[in-house]
Amino acid sequence: MRQRVERPIESATSDSEPLVVTGLSVRRVGDGQLVLPATDLRLGAGEVVAVVGASGAGKSSLLHALLDSLPSGLRRDGGVVRWRGLPIPEGRAARRWRRAHCGYVGQDPILALNPLWSVARLVGEQLSGSRRNRALRVREVCDLLGLPAELASRRCGELSGGQAQRVALARALATEPDVLLLDEPTSALDAETRSMIVEAVRAHPGGCTLLVTHDPFLVSVADRVVDLSPPATVTRRSPAARRVTVPTPSTVTSPPVRSLAAVPLAPGHGTAPLLAVQGLQVARPDGTPLLEDVHLNLAHGSWTAILGPSGSGKTSLLYAILGRRPVLHGRLLLGGHPLPADVRQRDREQRRAIQLVGQHPAGELNPVYRVGPAVARPLAVLHGVGRRERAREALRLLGSVGLAAEIAHRRPPALSGGQRQRIALARALAARPSVLLLDEPTSALDRASAATVLDLLDRLRDDGLAILSVTHDPTVAARADRVLHVHPRRLVEGRTDGPLPLTDNQTEESGAR
Residue 35: in which H helix or E strand, if any? Predict the structure, then answer.
Protein backbone atom coordinates (compact mmCIF):
# COMPACT_ATOMS: atom_id res chain seq x y z
CA MET A 1 0.00 0.00 0.00
CA ARG A 2 1.03 3.54 -0.63
CA GLN A 3 0.69 4.57 3.00
CA ARG A 4 1.62 3.07 6.34
CA VAL A 5 -1.42 3.52 8.57
CA GLU A 6 -1.43 3.79 12.34
CA ARG A 7 -3.85 0.93 12.98
CA PRO A 8 -5.83 -1.57 10.87
CA ILE A 9 -8.63 0.02 8.92
CA GLU A 10 -11.08 -2.58 10.19
CA SER A 11 -10.83 -1.07 13.67
CA ALA A 12 -12.08 2.33 12.52
CA THR A 13 -15.71 3.11 13.26
CA SER A 14 -18.07 5.19 11.16
CA ASP A 15 -18.52 7.58 14.08
CA SER A 16 -14.86 8.32 14.81
CA GLU A 17 -13.68 8.27 11.19
CA PRO A 18 -16.60 8.88 8.81
CA LEU A 19 -14.45 8.84 5.65
CA VAL A 20 -12.18 5.86 4.99
CA VAL A 21 -10.33 5.26 1.71
CA THR A 22 -8.70 1.89 0.98
CA GLY A 23 -6.33 1.14 -1.89
CA LEU A 24 -7.41 4.05 -4.08
CA SER A 25 -5.33 4.19 -7.27
CA VAL A 26 -5.40 6.12 -10.57
CA ARG A 27 -3.98 5.36 -14.02
CA ARG A 28 -3.71 7.28 -17.26
CA VAL A 29 -6.18 6.16 -19.91
CA GLY A 30 -3.82 6.16 -22.89
CA ASP A 31 -0.78 4.22 -21.73
CA GLY A 32 -1.95 2.78 -18.40
CA GLN A 33 0.77 4.60 -16.48
CA LEU A 34 0.18 4.64 -12.73
CA VAL A 35 -0.50 8.21 -11.53
CA LEU A 36 -1.55 7.41 -7.96
CA PRO A 37 -0.38 4.08 -6.49
CA ALA A 38 -2.77 2.32 -4.10
CA THR A 39 -3.33 4.73 -1.22
CA ASP A 40 -5.06 4.40 2.14
CA LEU A 41 -6.59 7.37 3.92
CA ARG A 42 -8.86 7.98 6.88
CA LEU A 43 -10.45 11.25 7.90
CA GLY A 44 -11.82 11.65 11.41
CA ALA A 45 -14.68 13.83 12.55
CA GLY A 46 -13.49 17.42 13.04
CA GLU A 47 -10.00 16.49 11.81
CA VAL A 48 -7.78 18.41 9.40
CA VAL A 49 -5.48 16.19 7.34
CA ALA A 50 -2.85 17.64 5.00
CA VAL A 51 -1.67 15.76 1.90
CA VAL A 52 1.85 16.68 0.80
CA GLY A 53 4.34 15.42 -1.75
CA ALA A 54 6.31 16.39 -4.82
CA SER A 55 4.63 17.94 -7.83
CA GLY A 56 3.09 15.11 -9.88
CA ALA A 57 2.93 12.68 -6.94
CA GLY A 58 -0.84 12.31 -7.37
CA LYS A 59 -2.16 14.66 -4.67
CA SER A 60 -4.85 16.34 -6.80
CA SER A 61 -5.66 13.00 -8.44
CA LEU A 62 -6.36 11.60 -4.98
CA LEU A 63 -9.01 14.27 -4.37
CA HIS A 64 -10.60 13.78 -7.80
CA ALA A 65 -10.61 10.00 -7.45
CA LEU A 66 -12.22 10.30 -4.03
CA LEU A 67 -14.94 12.52 -5.55
CA ASP A 68 -15.20 10.40 -8.73
CA SER A 69 -14.47 13.54 -10.77
CA LEU A 70 -11.26 12.56 -12.58
CA PRO A 71 -10.60 14.33 -15.92
CA SER A 72 -11.07 12.34 -19.12
CA GLY A 73 -7.39 11.39 -19.39
CA LEU A 74 -7.40 9.57 -16.04
CA ARG A 75 -9.34 6.66 -14.59
CA ARG A 76 -9.77 5.12 -11.16
CA ASP A 77 -7.95 1.81 -11.21
CA GLY A 78 -9.03 0.39 -7.88
CA GLY A 79 -9.90 1.08 -4.29
CA VAL A 80 -12.94 1.66 -2.11
CA VAL A 81 -14.28 4.89 -0.58
CA ARG A 82 -16.48 4.39 2.52
CA TRP A 83 -18.70 7.03 4.09
CA ARG A 84 -19.87 6.22 7.62
CA GLY A 85 -19.04 2.57 7.02
CA LEU A 86 -20.85 2.16 3.68
CA PRO A 87 -18.99 1.95 0.34
CA ILE A 88 -19.70 4.66 -2.23
CA PRO A 89 -19.97 3.16 -5.74
CA GLU A 90 -18.60 5.11 -8.68
CA GLY A 91 -20.94 6.99 -11.01
CA ARG A 92 -24.26 8.48 -9.96
CA ALA A 93 -23.98 7.33 -6.35
CA ALA A 94 -20.65 9.13 -5.98
CA ARG A 95 -22.04 12.29 -7.53
CA ARG A 96 -25.06 12.24 -5.20
CA TRP A 97 -22.76 11.78 -2.20
CA ARG A 98 -20.53 14.60 -3.42
CA ARG A 99 -23.45 17.01 -3.75
CA ALA A 100 -24.93 16.05 -0.38
CA HIS A 101 -21.82 15.97 1.78
CA CYS A 102 -18.80 17.67 0.16
CA GLY A 103 -17.44 21.14 -0.37
CA TYR A 104 -14.59 21.30 -2.88
CA VAL A 105 -12.14 24.03 -3.89
CA GLY A 106 -9.86 23.15 -6.78
CA GLN A 107 -6.37 24.34 -7.56
CA ASP A 108 -7.63 26.87 -10.13
CA PRO A 109 -10.82 28.09 -8.44
CA ILE A 110 -11.34 31.07 -10.72
CA LEU A 111 -12.00 28.66 -13.60
CA ALA A 112 -14.86 27.05 -11.65
CA LEU A 113 -16.63 30.36 -10.93
CA ASN A 114 -19.24 31.59 -13.41
CA PRO A 115 -17.74 34.84 -14.76
CA LEU A 116 -21.20 36.37 -15.27
CA TRP A 117 -22.36 35.93 -11.68
CA SER A 118 -21.83 38.28 -8.79
CA VAL A 119 -19.89 37.18 -5.71
CA ALA A 120 -23.09 37.12 -3.65
CA ARG A 121 -24.78 34.81 -6.13
CA LEU A 122 -21.74 32.54 -6.39
CA VAL A 123 -21.44 32.10 -2.63
CA GLY A 124 -25.17 31.67 -2.03
CA GLU A 125 -26.06 29.52 -5.02
CA GLN A 126 -26.58 26.28 -3.08
CA LEU A 127 -28.22 27.81 -0.02
CA SER A 128 -31.89 27.29 0.77
CA GLY A 129 -34.33 29.31 2.87
CA SER A 130 -35.58 32.87 2.63
CA ARG A 131 -33.73 35.53 0.68
CA ARG A 132 -32.89 37.35 3.91
CA ASN A 133 -31.44 34.25 5.57
CA ARG A 134 -29.41 33.39 2.47
CA ALA A 135 -28.02 36.92 2.34
CA LEU A 136 -27.11 36.78 6.03
CA ARG A 137 -25.28 33.48 5.57
CA VAL A 138 -23.39 34.84 2.55
CA ARG A 139 -22.30 37.87 4.54
CA GLU A 140 -21.33 35.70 7.51
CA VAL A 141 -19.05 33.40 5.54
CA CYS A 142 -17.53 36.29 3.55
CA ASP A 143 -16.74 38.12 6.79
CA LEU A 144 -15.10 34.96 8.09
CA LEU A 145 -12.72 35.00 5.11
CA GLY A 146 -12.03 38.73 5.10
CA LEU A 147 -14.02 39.49 1.95
CA PRO A 148 -15.35 43.08 2.21
CA ALA A 149 -19.02 43.81 1.58
CA GLU A 150 -18.15 45.87 -1.51
CA LEU A 151 -17.16 42.67 -3.34
CA ALA A 152 -20.68 41.23 -3.17
CA SER A 153 -21.80 42.90 -6.39
CA ARG A 154 -18.59 42.30 -8.36
CA ARG A 155 -18.21 39.62 -10.98
CA CYS A 156 -15.50 37.00 -10.98
CA GLY A 157 -13.43 38.79 -13.65
CA GLU A 158 -13.15 41.81 -11.35
CA LEU A 159 -11.46 39.84 -8.56
CA SER A 160 -7.81 39.22 -7.85
CA GLY A 161 -6.52 35.67 -7.71
CA GLY A 162 -6.54 35.71 -3.91
CA GLN A 163 -10.06 37.13 -3.76
CA ALA A 164 -11.32 34.49 -6.21
CA GLN A 165 -9.68 31.82 -4.09
CA ARG A 166 -11.51 33.05 -0.99
CA VAL A 167 -14.83 33.36 -2.86
CA ALA A 168 -14.51 29.71 -3.93
CA LEU A 169 -13.80 28.72 -0.33
CA ALA A 170 -16.74 30.80 0.93
CA ARG A 171 -18.94 29.00 -1.61
CA ALA A 172 -17.72 25.63 -0.29
CA LEU A 173 -18.17 26.61 3.37
CA ALA A 174 -21.58 28.25 2.99
CA THR A 175 -23.56 24.99 3.16
CA GLU A 176 -21.52 23.67 6.13
CA PRO A 177 -20.49 20.44 4.34
CA ASP A 178 -19.52 17.26 6.17
CA VAL A 179 -16.30 16.97 4.18
CA LEU A 180 -14.21 19.89 2.97
CA LEU A 181 -11.68 19.09 0.21
CA LEU A 182 -9.18 21.85 -0.59
CA ASP A 183 -6.46 21.83 -3.25
CA GLU A 184 -3.74 24.45 -2.58
CA PRO A 185 -6.22 26.79 -0.84
CA THR A 186 -3.60 29.44 0.08
CA SER A 187 -1.46 29.56 -3.08
CA ALA A 188 -2.50 33.14 -3.95
CA LEU A 189 -2.70 34.56 -0.43
CA ASP A 190 -0.47 36.66 1.80
CA ALA A 191 0.54 35.46 5.28
CA GLU A 192 -2.16 37.39 7.16
CA THR A 193 -4.92 36.06 4.91
CA ARG A 194 -3.54 32.52 5.18
CA SER A 195 -4.02 32.70 8.94
CA MET A 196 -7.61 33.78 8.36
CA ILE A 197 -8.18 30.76 6.11
CA VAL A 198 -6.84 28.43 8.79
CA GLU A 199 -9.23 29.92 11.36
CA ALA A 200 -12.14 29.49 8.94
CA VAL A 201 -11.27 25.86 8.28
CA ARG A 202 -10.86 25.18 12.00
CA ALA A 203 -14.24 26.81 12.63
CA HIS A 204 -15.88 24.39 10.17
CA PRO A 205 -18.55 22.97 12.54
CA GLY A 206 -18.53 19.19 12.90
CA GLY A 207 -16.90 18.59 9.53
CA CYS A 208 -13.59 17.11 8.49
CA THR A 209 -11.09 18.66 6.10
CA LEU A 210 -8.66 17.13 3.63
CA LEU A 211 -6.28 19.61 2.06
CA VAL A 212 -3.54 19.31 -0.55
CA THR A 213 -0.78 21.83 0.02
CA HIS A 214 2.84 22.85 -0.36
CA ASP A 215 2.34 25.58 2.27
CA PRO A 216 4.41 24.83 5.43
CA PHE A 217 2.02 26.93 7.49
CA LEU A 218 -0.98 24.78 6.58
CA VAL A 219 1.03 21.64 7.20
CA SER A 220 1.97 22.89 10.66
CA VAL A 221 -1.65 23.31 11.79
CA ALA A 222 -2.94 19.97 10.45
CA ASP A 223 -3.80 17.14 12.84
CA ARG A 224 -2.09 14.62 10.57
CA VAL A 225 0.05 14.75 7.45
CA VAL A 226 -0.12 12.21 4.63
CA ASP A 227 3.03 12.26 2.51
CA LEU A 228 2.67 10.88 -1.04
CA SER A 229 6.34 11.27 -1.87
CA PRO A 230 7.92 7.98 -3.03
CA PRO A 231 9.24 5.54 -2.09
CA ALA A 232 7.66 5.26 1.36
CA THR A 233 4.60 7.22 2.37
CA VAL A 234 3.76 7.65 6.01
CA THR A 235 1.13 9.29 8.13
CA ARG A 236 2.32 11.27 11.11
CA ARG A 237 0.23 12.88 13.81
CA SER A 238 1.03 16.35 15.06
CA PRO A 239 1.61 16.68 18.82
CA ALA A 240 -1.07 18.19 21.00
CA ALA A 241 0.51 21.60 20.59
CA ARG A 242 0.35 21.06 16.79
CA ARG A 243 4.10 21.46 16.45
CA VAL A 244 5.60 19.65 13.46
CA THR A 245 9.02 19.79 11.87
CA VAL A 246 7.87 21.93 8.93
CA PRO A 247 8.47 25.64 9.63
CA THR A 248 5.76 28.25 9.41
CA PRO A 249 6.20 31.31 7.15
CA SER A 250 7.27 33.41 10.12
CA THR A 251 10.13 31.02 10.88
CA VAL A 252 11.28 30.27 7.34
CA THR A 253 14.92 31.29 7.01
CA SER A 254 15.66 32.68 3.56
CA PRO A 255 18.94 33.95 2.17
CA PRO A 256 19.19 37.72 2.44
CA VAL A 257 17.93 39.77 -0.47
CA ARG A 258 20.87 40.84 -2.56
CA SER A 259 21.66 44.53 -2.45
CA LEU A 260 20.75 46.28 -5.69
CA ALA A 261 23.75 48.58 -5.53
CA ALA A 262 26.17 45.73 -4.89
CA VAL A 263 25.33 43.80 -8.06
CA PRO A 264 26.86 45.21 -11.28
CA LEU A 265 25.27 45.26 -14.70
CA ALA A 266 25.77 42.15 -16.79
CA PRO A 267 28.74 42.61 -19.15
CA GLY A 268 27.92 44.07 -22.52
CA HIS A 269 24.65 45.71 -21.47
CA GLY A 270 24.06 49.44 -21.39
CA THR A 271 22.86 51.39 -18.40
CA ALA A 272 19.50 52.35 -19.98
CA PRO A 273 16.59 50.32 -18.58
CA LEU A 274 15.27 47.53 -20.75
CA LEU A 275 11.69 48.29 -19.68
CA ALA A 276 10.63 51.57 -18.11
CA VAL A 277 7.25 52.12 -16.43
CA GLN A 278 6.58 55.82 -15.92
CA GLY A 279 3.71 57.17 -13.82
CA LEU A 280 1.40 54.24 -14.55
CA GLN A 281 -2.09 54.27 -13.09
CA VAL A 282 -4.02 51.00 -13.09
CA ALA A 283 -7.72 50.63 -12.25
CA ARG A 284 -10.36 47.96 -11.94
CA PRO A 285 -12.80 47.49 -14.84
CA ASP A 286 -15.28 49.77 -13.02
CA GLY A 287 -12.68 52.56 -12.93
CA THR A 288 -11.74 52.26 -9.25
CA PRO A 289 -8.00 53.03 -8.92
CA LEU A 290 -5.79 50.15 -7.83
CA LEU A 291 -2.27 51.51 -8.27
CA GLU A 292 -1.14 55.08 -8.89
CA ASP A 293 2.08 56.71 -10.06
CA VAL A 294 3.97 53.46 -10.60
CA HIS A 295 7.61 53.93 -11.64
CA LEU A 296 9.79 50.94 -12.48
CA ASN A 297 13.05 50.57 -14.35
CA LEU A 298 13.96 46.99 -15.27
CA ALA A 299 17.57 46.63 -16.40
CA HIS A 300 19.09 43.70 -18.28
CA GLY A 301 19.54 40.81 -15.86
CA SER A 302 17.62 42.42 -13.00
CA TRP A 303 14.94 40.82 -10.83
CA THR A 304 12.29 42.93 -9.11
CA ALA A 305 9.76 41.33 -6.76
CA ILE A 306 6.46 42.92 -5.72
CA LEU A 307 4.69 41.87 -2.53
CA GLY A 308 1.37 43.01 -1.16
CA PRO A 309 -2.01 41.87 0.18
CA SER A 310 -4.54 40.06 -1.96
CA GLY A 311 -6.52 42.46 -4.14
CA SER A 312 -3.99 45.29 -3.97
CA GLY A 313 -3.41 45.37 -7.75
CA LYS A 314 -0.23 43.34 -8.21
CA THR A 315 -1.61 41.07 -10.94
CA SER A 316 -3.36 44.00 -12.61
CA LEU A 317 0.00 45.75 -12.90
CA LEU A 318 1.51 42.76 -14.73
CA TYR A 319 -1.42 42.64 -17.14
CA ALA A 320 -1.17 46.39 -17.72
CA ILE A 321 2.50 46.01 -18.67
CA LEU A 322 1.59 43.08 -20.91
CA GLY A 323 -0.99 45.27 -22.63
CA ARG A 324 -4.05 43.30 -21.57
CA ARG A 325 -5.40 45.69 -18.94
CA PRO A 326 -6.37 49.35 -19.63
CA VAL A 327 -3.94 52.00 -18.39
CA LEU A 328 -5.47 55.27 -17.19
CA HIS A 329 -2.27 57.31 -17.12
CA GLY A 330 1.44 56.90 -17.68
CA ARG A 331 3.56 55.30 -20.37
CA LEU A 332 5.76 52.30 -21.09
CA LEU A 333 9.15 52.32 -22.79
CA LEU A 334 10.80 49.20 -24.21
CA GLY A 335 14.49 49.70 -24.94
CA GLY A 336 13.93 53.46 -24.76
CA HIS A 337 11.13 53.41 -27.36
CA PRO A 338 7.42 53.99 -26.62
CA LEU A 339 5.49 50.77 -26.10
CA PRO A 340 1.75 50.85 -26.94
CA ALA A 341 -0.45 50.28 -23.91
CA ASP A 342 -2.74 47.93 -25.88
CA VAL A 343 -1.18 44.61 -26.89
CA ARG A 344 -3.23 44.66 -30.11
CA GLN A 345 -1.25 47.71 -31.22
CA ARG A 346 2.14 46.11 -30.56
CA ASP A 347 4.17 44.52 -33.34
CA ARG A 348 5.47 40.96 -33.23
CA GLU A 349 8.83 41.90 -31.76
CA GLN A 350 7.21 43.91 -28.96
CA ARG A 351 4.86 41.03 -28.12
CA ARG A 352 7.76 38.58 -28.13
CA ALA A 353 9.88 40.75 -25.85
CA ILE A 354 7.45 40.68 -22.90
CA GLN A 355 6.01 37.35 -21.77
CA LEU A 356 3.79 36.48 -18.80
CA VAL A 357 3.45 33.30 -16.76
CA GLY A 358 0.09 33.82 -15.11
CA GLN A 359 -1.33 32.75 -11.80
CA HIS A 360 -3.71 30.18 -13.33
CA PRO A 361 -1.82 28.19 -16.00
CA ALA A 362 -4.70 25.72 -16.35
CA GLY A 363 -6.67 28.53 -17.98
CA GLU A 364 -3.81 29.52 -20.27
CA LEU A 365 -3.01 26.06 -21.66
CA ASN A 366 -5.37 24.73 -24.31
CA PRO A 367 -6.62 21.37 -22.95
CA VAL A 368 -6.81 19.93 -26.49
CA TYR A 369 -3.14 20.39 -27.43
CA ARG A 370 -0.39 18.10 -26.22
CA VAL A 371 2.32 19.72 -24.14
CA GLY A 372 5.15 19.40 -26.70
CA PRO A 373 3.40 21.30 -29.52
CA ALA A 374 2.06 23.87 -27.04
CA VAL A 375 5.57 24.69 -25.79
CA ALA A 376 6.97 24.67 -29.34
CA ARG A 377 4.33 26.98 -30.80
CA PRO A 378 6.07 30.30 -29.91
CA LEU A 379 9.20 29.02 -31.66
CA ALA A 380 7.22 28.57 -34.88
CA VAL A 381 5.06 31.70 -34.67
CA LEU A 382 7.63 34.18 -33.36
CA HIS A 383 10.90 32.76 -34.68
CA GLY A 384 10.04 30.58 -37.66
CA VAL A 385 11.91 27.56 -36.27
CA GLY A 386 11.54 24.34 -38.27
CA ARG A 387 9.46 21.43 -37.01
CA ARG A 388 12.26 19.09 -35.92
CA GLU A 389 14.34 21.79 -34.32
CA ARG A 390 11.45 23.25 -32.35
CA ALA A 391 10.47 19.75 -31.14
CA ARG A 392 14.01 19.28 -29.80
CA GLU A 393 13.98 22.74 -28.25
CA ALA A 394 10.61 22.06 -26.58
CA LEU A 395 12.05 18.95 -24.93
CA ARG A 396 15.09 20.93 -23.79
CA LEU A 397 12.87 23.62 -22.27
CA LEU A 398 10.73 21.05 -20.48
CA GLY A 399 13.87 19.45 -19.08
CA SER A 400 15.15 22.83 -17.92
CA VAL A 401 12.07 23.27 -15.68
CA GLY A 402 12.43 19.76 -14.27
CA LEU A 403 9.90 17.87 -16.42
CA ALA A 404 10.54 14.51 -18.08
CA ALA A 405 10.42 14.15 -21.87
CA GLU A 406 7.32 11.93 -21.71
CA ILE A 407 5.31 14.95 -20.48
CA ALA A 408 5.49 16.31 -24.06
CA HIS A 409 3.00 13.66 -25.23
CA ARG A 410 0.40 14.38 -22.56
CA ARG A 411 -2.39 16.93 -22.35
CA PRO A 412 -2.79 19.53 -19.56
CA PRO A 413 -5.91 18.08 -17.87
CA ALA A 414 -3.98 14.88 -17.04
CA LEU A 415 -1.18 16.82 -15.31
CA SER A 416 -0.77 18.23 -11.83
CA GLY A 417 -1.00 21.94 -11.09
CA GLY A 418 2.75 22.14 -10.50
CA GLN A 419 3.46 20.45 -13.84
CA ARG A 420 1.13 22.85 -15.65
CA GLN A 421 2.81 25.80 -13.95
CA ARG A 422 6.22 24.69 -15.22
CA ILE A 423 4.85 24.02 -18.70
CA ALA A 424 3.52 27.59 -18.84
CA LEU A 425 7.00 28.83 -17.89
CA ALA A 426 8.65 26.66 -20.57
CA ARG A 427 6.24 28.02 -23.17
CA ALA A 428 6.96 31.61 -22.16
CA LEU A 429 10.71 30.97 -22.40
CA ALA A 430 10.22 29.49 -25.87
CA ALA A 431 9.34 33.00 -27.05
CA ARG A 432 12.87 34.04 -25.99
CA PRO A 433 11.64 37.11 -24.12
CA SER A 434 13.65 40.07 -22.92
CA VAL A 435 11.29 40.69 -19.97
CA LEU A 436 9.55 37.90 -18.06
CA LEU A 437 6.52 38.69 -15.90
CA LEU A 438 5.80 36.06 -13.24
CA ASP A 439 2.62 35.87 -11.17
CA GLU A 440 3.13 33.58 -8.15
CA PRO A 441 5.64 31.39 -10.05
CA THR A 442 6.08 28.81 -7.26
CA SER A 443 2.55 28.66 -5.83
CA ALA A 444 1.90 25.07 -6.99
CA LEU A 445 5.45 23.73 -6.59
CA ASP A 446 7.14 21.67 -3.93
CA ARG A 447 10.44 22.97 -2.55
CA ALA A 448 12.67 20.95 -4.87
CA SER A 449 10.73 21.92 -8.00
CA ALA A 450 10.64 25.56 -6.89
CA ALA A 451 14.41 25.55 -6.40
CA THR A 452 14.88 24.09 -9.91
CA VAL A 453 12.76 26.86 -11.43
CA LEU A 454 14.38 29.67 -9.44
CA ASP A 455 17.89 28.43 -10.26
CA LEU A 456 16.96 28.36 -13.95
CA LEU A 457 15.69 31.94 -13.77
CA ASP A 458 18.91 33.06 -12.10
CA ARG A 459 20.93 31.48 -14.92
CA LEU A 460 18.79 33.22 -17.53
CA ARG A 461 19.45 36.53 -15.83
CA ASP A 462 23.12 36.04 -16.59
CA ASP A 463 22.11 36.18 -20.27
CA GLY A 464 20.28 39.48 -19.71
CA LEU A 465 16.70 38.39 -18.97
CA ALA A 466 14.85 40.95 -16.80
CA ILE A 467 12.27 39.57 -14.36
CA LEU A 468 9.34 41.22 -12.62
CA SER A 469 7.57 38.85 -10.23
CA VAL A 470 4.50 39.11 -8.03
CA THR A 471 4.73 36.77 -5.06
CA HIS A 472 3.84 35.92 -1.49
CA ASP A 473 6.73 33.45 -1.30
CA PRO A 474 9.75 34.69 0.71
CA THR A 475 12.07 32.31 -1.19
CA VAL A 476 11.13 34.05 -4.46
CA ALA A 477 11.60 37.51 -2.96
CA ALA A 478 15.02 36.42 -1.66
CA ARG A 479 16.21 35.91 -5.25
CA ALA A 480 15.34 39.46 -6.27
CA ASP A 481 17.68 42.45 -6.42
CA ARG A 482 14.88 44.71 -5.35
CA VAL A 483 11.75 44.06 -3.30
CA LEU A 484 8.78 46.45 -3.45
CA HIS A 485 5.58 46.43 -1.43
CA VAL A 486 2.12 47.71 -2.34
CA HIS A 487 1.32 50.33 0.26
CA PRO A 488 -2.04 52.12 -0.26
CA ARG A 489 -1.95 52.29 -4.10
CA ARG A 490 1.78 52.96 -4.25
CA LEU A 491 4.88 50.83 -4.66
CA VAL A 492 7.29 51.40 -1.80
CA GLU A 493 10.78 50.08 -1.15
CA GLY A 494 11.13 47.14 1.24
CA ARG A 495 13.10 47.77 4.44
CA THR A 496 13.71 45.71 7.57
CA ASP A 497 12.04 48.41 9.66
CA GLY A 498 9.04 48.72 7.34
CA PRO A 499 8.37 50.04 3.85
CA LEU A 500 9.43 53.55 2.96
CA PRO A 501 8.23 55.65 0.00
CA LEU A 502 10.46 55.67 -3.04
CA THR A 503 12.38 58.84 -3.70
CA ASP A 504 12.88 60.29 -7.17
CA ASN A 505 16.51 59.15 -7.13
CA GLN A 506 15.52 55.59 -6.24
CA THR A 507 13.01 55.58 -9.07
CA GLU A 508 15.56 56.73 -11.63
CA GLU A 509 18.39 54.50 -10.48
CA SER A 510 16.43 51.31 -9.76
CA GLY A 511 16.69 48.09 -11.70
CA ALA A 512 20.46 47.90 -12.19
CA ARG A 513 21.85 44.48 -11.51
Answer: strand 34-43
Residues 240 and 300 in one domain: no
Let me know whether 357 and 489 are in one domain: yes
151 and 142 Cβ atoms separated by less than 8 Å: yes
Is there a domain that residue 408 lies in? Answer: no
Number of C-beta neighbours around residue 408 at 10 A: 20
pTM of the predicted model as reported, rounded to 2 decimal places: 0.77
Strands 303-307 and 482-487: parallel
CA distances, 326 to each of 219, 292, 343, 358 (Å): 39, 13, 10, 17
C-alpha 67/C-alpha 91 separation (Å) is 10
Q: What is the pLDDT of residue 177?
A: 94
b/e for 299-338, b at 16 or more Cβ within 10 A? bbbbbbbbbbbbbbbbbbbbbbbbbebbbeebebbbeeee
Number of domains in the chain: 2
Domain range enclosing 155: 3-9+26-251
Please identify every stretch of the chain with a pLDDT value under 50, giving residue numbers as ranges. 1-13, 232-235, 237-270, 495-513
Cα angle at 179 between 174 and 185, to 5 degrees? 70
CATH for 42? 3.40.50.300
- Tell me how far apart the alpha carbons of residues 316 and 160 are, in angstroms, rounded to a whole number: 8
